[in-house]
Design goal:
The protein has 231 residues and is of the alpha+beta class. It is 30% helix and 28% strand. The protein folds into 2 domains: 130 residues, no CATH class; 67 residues, Orthogonal Bundle (Arc Repressor Mutant, subunit A). The protein contains 7 helices and 8 strands.
């Protein structure tokens, strides 16, 4: 079996994460439609072409923020924007958003050929001793040299943006302020890819890494036999 080994290391980042649901355009439309006159849930759902449960959930949320109030009438509950909600709509200001800020530590594997990063749970780090064991077993192990050198653990702005995207676990999370946690031990080893599994890499592996692995997995041409000159 053929294996391709790329020098890699694991590093831990800590991120500040703002978690909270932002307001949608439909919710702002609902609030603006009840600034001048109150309306029922059924009428509001019909106006914004939304389902009753969705509109009801939006109204409940706006009531918790003090943007909407309800009153009982003969036709049922009527909803109207409060003075606070009406002022926000009139001034064109954004609706209040109070996300919860939390810290999260995430471990990444960064390969040393193109400096592509992966979540450590998706791509394991293989110790160097495994390479010797595979070769003793008779496997073909092809090692890609470390082509791009730099400070281990250093990431560019582009890489940090990618790591922030990987650290987010839900749509309502905004990840900011990522930095390397230096007080944790760093593990070095190899990213191992089977030659017949290059196409099964994570979708965001990048074209440069895929091409590098495909080239390494290509069969080596057999040496040409020396020509014999006849007398």
């Amino acid at each position: 079996m053929m294996w391709i080994a790329i020098p890699a290391y694991k590093v831990t980042f800590q991120f500040s994460i703002r978690k909270g649901k932002s307001w949608s355009g439909e919710e702002r439309f609902i609030l603006s439609s009840i600034v001048k006159s109150a309306n029922t849930l059924t009428a509001l759902a019909s106006e914004c072409s939304g389902s009753r449960p969705q509109v009801s959930a939006s109204l409940d949320r706006m009531m918790r923020y003090g943007l909407v109030e309800s009153s009982l009438a003969l036709g049922g509950l009527l909803y109207r924007a409060t003075c606070k909600g009406a002022e926000l709509i009139a001034d064109g200001r954004p609706l209040p958003f109070f996300p919860v800020v939390q810290a999260r530590r995430v471990r990444f594997l960064i390969e040393g050929a193109t400096l592509r990063s992966f979540l450590s749970r998706e791509v394991p780090l293989i110790p160097a001793t495994w390479l010797d064991e595979l070769q003793r077993r008779g496997d073909d192990v092809r090692q890609i040299p470390l082509k791009r050198r730099g400070r281990e653990g250093f990431v560019s702005e582009e890489q940090l943006e990618r790591l922030c995207g990987l650290a987010a676990r839900a749509r309502d999370e905004v990840v900011t302020n990522g930095y390397v946690v230096h007080d944790l031990p760093r593990e070095s080893g190899f990213m191992m890819v089977a030659a017949d599994a290059v196409g099964q890499l994570p979708r965001d592996a990048g074209e440069a890494l895929r091409k590098l692995l495909s080239d390494a997995a290509a069969p080596t041409p057999s040496p040409r036999a020396p020509s014999v000159k006849r007398a």
